[in-house]
Amino acid sequence: MKSEEKIFKQLPIPEPAIRDEDAVEMLRVWIAERKLHCSMKIGMHQESMNIPEEKAWGTILADAARHLANAMESRYLTDAAESLIKIRDVFIDELEDPSSDAEGDFVKKH
Fold first, then answer.
1. Is 30 helix (H, G, I), strand (E, B) or coil?
2. Contact indicator for 38, 27 with CB cutoff of 8 Å
3. In angstroms, what CA-CA distances link 65 with 21, 34, 37, 45, 89?
4. In Å, how far from its chain's centre is CA 14?
5. pLDDT one-digit tens code per residue, 62-103
6. What are the residue boundaries of the structural domains of the chain, listed by start?
7. Torsion of Cα atoms, 30 then 33 then 35 then 39, to 10°
8. Distance CA 17, CA 30 (A)
9. With the C-alpha atoms ordered 73, 78, 80, 85, is the resulting torsion angle positive or negative?
10. Which of left, alpha, beta for 44 (phi over 0: left; psi -120 to 50: alpha)?
């Protein structure tokens, strides 16, 4: 399959990210070859704003979890607060006892 044919699998870019010329993509995540693959922008907070990356990414991941819980509530009529608790519990369990290794290389810019 040509890469042009695979574009339909991409998620849409949110309208505010299109409108804001200062918008920055921070994270992309794929399931490919039965594994998780990520592209991450690391260093922006620490290097340009003197904010520790751990703090910035903890906030990003927490915000993403809240967005996920809200989306599930909208789509499946589940309670967002309950979903967020479940997401948090699985997140903590996965950090303490990973179901798979996080392995791979860090790719430099193209």
1. strand
2. yes
3. 25, 23, 18, 20, 11
4. 14
5. 999 999 999 999 999 999 999 999 999 999 999 999 998 888
6. 3-96
7. -40
8. 20
9. negative
10. alpha
Q: Residue 43 corresponds to which tokens in the numbers above?
A: 């260093």
CA angle 107, 25, 47 (to 5 degrees): 70
Assess contact for 42 and 53: CB atoms under 8 A: yes
- Amino acid identity at 39: S
Nearest to 60 by CA among 83, 72, 42, 77: 42
Residue spans of alpha helices (H) in the chain: 15-19, 44-49, 53-76, 80-96
The model's pTM is: 0.85
